[in-house]
Each structure stands twice: as structure tokens, then as C-alpha cells.
Specification:
331 residues, alpha/beta, Rossmann fold, seven-stranded mixed β-sheet, disordered N terminus
């Protein structure tokens, strides 16, 4: 089990300039957390059926400081696995930095859907924006957050007729004011989703529930009412997907067909444009990393309540309720 905070050379230089000994402080904090986690794991985690606990086999290696990373390695009875400790700030439901960094994904979902509507990709063989004399495609966007808003904006810019759905009326009012005339806002209910699925050529799932699994808004029985060759792009597949038939795919084999509907469910969509994605994510997260390096996580979280809400584990205990519920662990 390893806890790692990885960085780029330029970011590492900024951290060194920002706080003298930041890497040592970071490594020290990781070592403390590593020992706390190990202590809890020894009490709770069996090595194998009938094999007791980890009391005799768990160990924590000293912190290692490298040029671009600080890490603490923990071993469990000869077997090792990676463990990622992440801190995210959620200033609002619609604007967490982790999604700010996915701007490439936000814009790319509509473009990806347009590509897979083409006949060689098993789609209907239609152009998203249509042409003079031929109507454009109908796009249904589930979720009015950052991803859904950008997807709707791009699809509408290409000329498609767009429906964007959300359960937040305040968000829908805002979108109604800023979106072009070919974007219609609709309050999301099971009935309204089923109605608009009948006419949708492209469905973009863009639902976010921080720390929790996405609800299945598009169920298996709904596919029968959709057009043959229509496309579902499930952006939230890495959180379980908002489509019941969604399962993670790869860039090499990005799609599969269920009941005549093309599913695009690549779990790492930004990886297709990795350079742009990296710059976008780094721009969004550097301020938080600098605050953590300068102040340490406890002081940084005390000064920024939004940052504290993003801490998933502290002092060996899970502090994020949706995460605890997802893994059936105490909160």
C-alpha cells in the first residue's frame, strides 16, 4: 500500500520556493497518517480466512522524498497495493476543482457523441448540426453542472437542438438566461427523462453527487424506447454511471451496443486529450497544493472550510459520509 503525492517538475519548484522544507513536512505528515492507517488495519483487516489479523505482518517504511514526489510505503504480509489519499475542495455542487480540471472532458463529451453518431461508428449516420434543409440532431443532457453546461454549449454551438435537465430550479433559471435559443431547460423527473429519451439522438450523462455513486437515471428498459443507432455518452461512468447499462471501456475499445444503442463509457475520457487535460487540472489545483504546503493540511482546512469538506480520511478515520456509506465502513 503506498500513499503518494505526485507532481510535475515546475510544481515541485514552486512548492520549494513557496515553503522551505515543504517536501519534508509533507513526508512527515504522510508518515503519521500511514502509521494511523496501519494501526487501524491491523485491528480490522484479516490476512486470509482463518489467518488472523495484520498485527504480525503490517509495517510502515520511512518516508521517501524524491525529486517529484513524497511517498510512504506500507506493506501487508508480503502483498502490496496502491492507496491514494486525495483532498478536494467543493466550493459548490457545480464547481469543485476536480471538475474544473476536466474542462477538456466537459467540451469533449459532445464532440465525442457527434463522432459516434456517424454510421461507421454504428451510429445513425447523422450530422449533429444538420445542414440546410435537414434538421439537426436532438441532444439530451442529464445534469446542469459544469460538464453538462459545457456539453450543452458545444452541442448548441454546432447547431443541435439541446435539452438540458436538472433538479435544481435555481440552476435551470441561470442556464435559461445564459444559453442560446436552441437550448431548452427541463426539470428532471423520471417521467420527463423517459419522454425526452424517445426523441434523443445523443444522450450525455453528466450527473455529479460528490463522493457518492450516481443514480441510474437511464434504466435498461428505457433503451427499448430510444432510436436505433442513438448514442449514450456516460461521463460519470467512473462514479458508477447514470445509465444502468454503462460499464467502463477503454480508448482502444470505447463503445459497445446494447439494444441498438451505442454506449461510450470510457472511464478516463480526458486521457484522449491528455496534454490539455493536464494543464487544465494543474491550473485548478496548484492554489490548493500551495496552501497545503505552506500551512499543513490541518491549518489549511481550518482556514478554508470548503477544503475541509473534501478530506476523505484523517487520523485513520473516514470523514466523508458518502465514501463511508459506499464502502460500508464507519463514519
Amino acid at each position: 500500500m503506498g500513499i503518494r503525492i505526485e507532481g510535475l517538475d515546475k510544481l515541485n519548484l514552486r512548492l520549494k520556493k513557496s515553503a522551505a522544507g515543504a517536501a519534508k513536512e509533507l513526508a512527515g505528515g504522510l508518515l503519521v497518517e500511514g502509521n494511523l492507517i496501519m494501526t487501524a488495519a491491523k485491528k480490522l483487516t484479516p490476512v486470509a480466512p482463518g489467518g488472523g489479523t495484520l498485527r504480525s505482518s503490517g509495517h510502515v517504511q520511512p518516508a521517501v522524498i524524491k525529486r517529484t514526489s513524497a511517498s510512504v510505503e506500507m506493506g501487508f504480509g508480503g502483498a502490496a497495493s496502491d492507496y491514494a489519499l486525495a483532498v478536494h475542495e467543493f466550493p459548490s455542487k457545480y464547481n469543485p476543482p476536480s471538475w474544473k480540471g476536466k474542462t477538456s472532458l466537459n467540451w469533449n463529451s459532445a464532440g465525442t457523441g457527434a463522432k459516434f453518431l456517424e454510421k461507421p461508428m454504428e451510429g445513425q449516420g447523422i450530422l449533429l448540426g444538420g445542414i440546410p434543409g435537414v434538421e439537426p440532431a436532438s441532444v439530451l443532457v442529464l445534469g446542469g453542472g459544469i460538464v453538462g453546461t459545457c456539453a450543452a454549449r458545444l452541442a448548441s454551438g454546432l447547431g443541435a437542438n439541446v435539452i438540458i435537465m436538472d433538479i435544481d430550479l435555481y440552476r435551470l433559471r441561470y442556464l435559461d438566461e445564459v444559453m442560446p435559443a436552441n437550448v431548452t431547460t427541463v426539470f428532471s423527473t423520471d417521467e420527463s427523462i423517459r419522454h425526452h429519451l424517445k426523441f434523443a439522438d445523443l444522450v450525455i450523462g453528466a450527473v455529479l453527487i460528490p463522493g457518492a455513486r450516481c443514480p441510474h437515471l437511464v434504466r435498461r428498459e428505457h433503451l427499448a424506447m430510444m432510436k436505433n443507432g442513438s448514442v449514450i455518452v456516460d461521463v460519470c461512468v467512473d462514479q458508477g454511471g447514470c445509465c444502468e447499462t454503462a460499464r467502463p471501456t477503454t480508448h482502444k475499445q470505447p463503445t459497445y451496443v446494447v439494444d441498438g444503442v451505442v454506449h461510450y463509457c470510457v472511464a478516463n475520457m480526458p486521457g484522449a486529450v491528455g496534454r490539455t487535460s493536464t494543464f487544465g487540472l494543474t491550473n485548478a489545483t496548484i492554489p490548493y497544493l500551495l496552501n497545503l504546503a505552506n500551512q499543513g493540511y490541518e491549518r489549511a482546512c481550518a482556514a478554508a472550510p470548503g477544503l475541509a469538506k473534501g478530506v476523505n480520511m484523517a487520523h485513520g478515520k473516514i470523514t466523508n459520509q458518502p465514501v463511508a456509506e459506499a464502502f460500508d465502513m464507519p463514519f
